[in-house]
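Build the 3D complex.
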Amino acid sequence: MIAQYLANGIVLGSSIALGAVGLTLTYNILNFANFAHGSLLSWGAYFAWLVVLVFGGVQSTIGPLSFGWPFILAIVAAALMASVLALVLDWLVFRVLRKSNIQVTLVIASFGASLLLRNLIVVVFGPEPQYYSDNIQIAQPILPGVRTTPDELFVVGLAVVLVIGLHLFLTRTRLGKAMRAVSDNASLAQVSGINVHNVVRWTWVVGGSLAAVAGVMFGLTVQILPDMGFNLLLFLFSAAILGGIGSIYGAILGGLVIGIAADLSVLFISPAYKPAVAFILMIVVLLIKPSGILGEKVQ
Amino acid sequence: MRFGGLKAVDDVSFKIREHTITGLIGPNGAGKTTLFNSIAGVYTPTAGQILFKGERIDGLPPHRIFHKGLVRTFQIPRPFPEMTVLENLLVVPPSQCGESFWNNWFQPARVREEEERNHDKACEIAKFLNLGHVLDLPCKNLSGGQQKLVEIGRALMADPSMILLDEPGAGVNPSLLAEIIDRISELHERGITFLLIEHNMDMVLNLCDPILVMANGRLLMEGDAQAVRSDPRVLDAYLGGEPEATS
Amino acid sequence: MTGIVSYLVFFSILASIYSLMSLGLNLQWGYTGLFNIGVVGFFAVGAYTFAILASPPAAGHIGGFNWPFLAALIAAMIATGIVALIVGIPTLRLREDYLAIATIGIGATIQLIANNMNWLTGGPNGIYNIPQPLSAYFSSNLGYNVFFLVMIVVILLLAYWSLERIVHSPWGRVLMAIREDETAASSVGKSGFSYRLQSFVIGSILMGLAGALYASFIKYISPTLFMPVLTFQVWAMLIVGGSGNNRGAILGSVLVWALWTMSGSVVQAILPSTLQVKGGAFQIILIGLVLMLVLLFRPRGIMGSRKAVVFAGESKTVSGE
Amino acid sequence: MKSRRITSSLVASAIMGVAALAPLAVQAKCTTTIGSVMALTGSLGALGQSIAKGAELAVDTVNKAGGVNGCDLKLSMLDDQTSPAVGVSAAKQLVDIHQVPAIVGALSSGVSMAILTSVTAPGKVVQISPSSTSPSFTELAKSGKTGGYWFRTTPSDALQGVAMAKLARENGLKRVAVLYLKNPYGEGLAGKFSEYFKKLGGKVTASVPYNPKQPSYRSEVSSALGGDPQAVFLIGYPGDGTTVAREWISSGGPQTFLLPDGLESQKFVDDVGAKYMKKVLGTAAGSVNTPSLKTFDSDFQKQFGNPPTQAYMTNAYDAVMVIALAMDKGHGTSADTVKNNIRGISGTAGTAIYAGAGQYEKALKLIKEGKRIHYVGASGELTFDKNGDVSGPMAIWTLKDKKVVQDRMMSVSTINKVLMKR
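Done.
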């Protein structure tokens, strides 16, 4: 039984990790807690759903997966569209407020934006849950006591690939290095000739794309729902804080820890308290080590 | 003091004697403001000690250092913008009885009495700083120079033994500058110790003794105006090919 | 005509309860700059503490303490204060946005506890035999409601008067200084943490008080009441009324609550029938828009902050080192 | 200065508010107004809008047949946004300003209970809910705090839980997992089912609650799967219920579903996929044996252009019919007339009256002649006990050709036999 919950936790943790990475990036580089991040996640999932609909559903499938090539295209398209959405949001709202340099104003504005974006989904797409495919995959045993669906394995695999890609991007490319430099110390980076505005733009693109992919992954394994991003927000923030705000690897670790802890908690307490588990973990970490597990600077 | 791999202030050691106006000069990026912030408690030095009246104060948070009698102003003035000049001054006096939530309920008389005392003091200081006519204006409506005066006024409200002034003369028109210089020397005569960062050489050379010169995060020399003027290293530091950077 | 009077009495009681919450939030946000988005959580703690302590025995959950009204009211406030301490101590030391994250978490967690801890809260069925103070002495419903209104208005005025007094004391001055510029406040010897904690706890206690009064007036509470939308309502009230202004907080509560109770009919009247189901979504979109627009154009709310000073452009803020 | 401005704007807004709420004063013909509070927006909005149509249809039917005591019946319906605070305000508006003697609503138990305790019971106004199933109402009524003004046209969860337990055992199921929505409906139903399923010799392998709107239900389903059940009793509404069902199938759970009235929905079946639901055993309050349901269906189709698809629509219809008939019987429109005559037009004594305008006319005639009637509603027989609860037979439904169909009845006596079992 434990193994099954562990597996569930890893699947959930993969989506959380990707979302949390985006969150921690924007948090660190733009210097505020972006409550609209969850909405980017939802919008990403709906964008992909739109693309899938345009292709007339997901009839042709790859191997045992529930979807075909159009779906891969849909993921990419969703990432692009979510990035555009993030940039528009930045341009309309955050750009103006960032000048004022008051974090809380940005936070509350992002909260307003999240209300707006989330309910726009309800208006545009309706409140009912949607699914990429009407077919349901039946979980198969892969290890003794562990059953998963091929889609779930795909999700974990995709998360691993993206994390490795992100690592290479941040350590090998000029842009990635610039992003790390800005996140370390923005004014210092500016002095050394880094175009901070450009970095900010790319932060939205990377953060938005990762959020969109996390949304699609979540939509694939669970469902697509207007509230999905908002409901996951507590998990995302807990993961980011657990790992140490600003630490990308911390966010990944935090995502996995939160996902696994939430699912394993079912062994001891009612599943009803799953979201509270994330919250309590976060408070405990804040009490013991405010900088998070892998966080460097004490705020 | 390090930031990441960068050493901003390194191996700086000096003493400030009581009842002096010590000047701290140096080219941009020399580490003056960083040094200031370390003394005031904004940063914790990665190595070394800071002593004030024989007590170690490095690593203490800014509000604790304030209570030791060491008060600072900011390079770009930071008055509380929505609050009036009077309110800005009234915030300062340390350990006010009325700052405790309960005293306002259980000792209202004491609070009022203390408030009246502080009010008188604030008016007096405002008058001294020529701010009497703007007491009830929100600080965001004041000119930059007046805001500097408000900061000095805030410092005075605390009856400090030492004030750290970060570029009191920058961006101030000449007549106001003269006034600021005047006030500083008058306060000095009253027994307050000053450490001030300044770019205005005239002001430093006239007002300060001794003068510390910093460059590239190190202390270059220490001496009176005469010594600084004649030391070739100082000129070098200002003209030298070191890259410009904002401090 | 008595009908209209009776309704206005009822309306005013609920508006006063919202005003109390909005006043609490005003202390936190308007005067201290604390971004609390878990208002509903503190409201719920107050409501449940009161309900559990004041109610006669009931099947299925803890209770039957039969505490007198005033004692239960005070206990509700204390319980809310303790919860605020638990949330505040780890987060208020840190950056401002940690509080936002923690409060949204506590709001969700308390709702989960309310819905799932049956032995304590009655679970989804809620607590339904909450007593009203002195109700035995009134024969008519309207008469009792008038009494309740008088009582709650007295409480509201007391809260308003206390808040006005305290924010204009040296204590409130420090609070505002911290809101304006924490670094500068710290340079003149004021430690942010302790003041923020005090403000947070006192504001939350007012929310708990509102919850207790709600429970006592409606006589029934259940988890359905404690949805995040309540937090947004209170925020809308404060922002519309003008944060940093206690009178604005009360005015905003009355206006927004009037709008809110009627908006259902308005939504029905305006929206085509196919979009009616989404009326709730439109409402929230509206709140989101109002929040953002007010922030962009009138950061201090419509009534402005406490002093009616001439606005010389946007508030000038100073960047750090 | 400023305070005067505030005061005046407060007064102005109050006056505006009252003006907006005041009913139209001039009316040509005599009208009897009853109220309704329903969730037209908010989380139960989709459900509420359909249920409201049931009530509207009943008003139309009554008016076609000559109205109540010769006056037009009018339904003032307000939205509660699925929020108790808004719901009590709406109910108070209806009672105070529209002066209604009876309110149909609300839908969710949380809202209905708040209205009952703060508005209708103290204000002595009849409240009939078409869909609030919480057992708390029975408790409150027993303690005398409803004053007898509370009724509901939906049977309490006890009956359906018992019926489902019986149905499951009849179909040879011994080991059943229960996955229930954590609200009064889900909790009540799950509790009763477990109690009687055990008494009938079955075993509940797991009883797992789920909260609405959670990001994922994987672990809930995983814990429900432990214990190797033969079937799942899934309690909830379409939406979250759909997701849980899909999760259940995906996790490899047995594809035998026990479903209550909340999931008696074609949309639910379509969204989950009928091919994954090998066996469906459904229960719902209702009656396939009376002509009322057929009349309701065809009248509804005529009125709105589409067939009724939602649970509780018939219950809302019946709530209005019962109020109208009670007013006729008592020759008055006051709340006490309704309260005191409801039991006089329901039960089993006298001539049966079914749904539809023709039947209503017949009822009016019989009442005039002083004869006893009883109304058999579209939702089934309605016999109100002293707590305002109804008991009635249960309908059994299942899937035929991927469509939801009711196929037989479980009578009151069958259910009572199980209830008696120790």
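Chain C touches chain B at residues 165-166, 169-171, 173-174, 176-177, 180-181, 183-191, 198, 202, 300, 305, 307, 309-310, 312, 315-319, 321 (CB under 8 Å).
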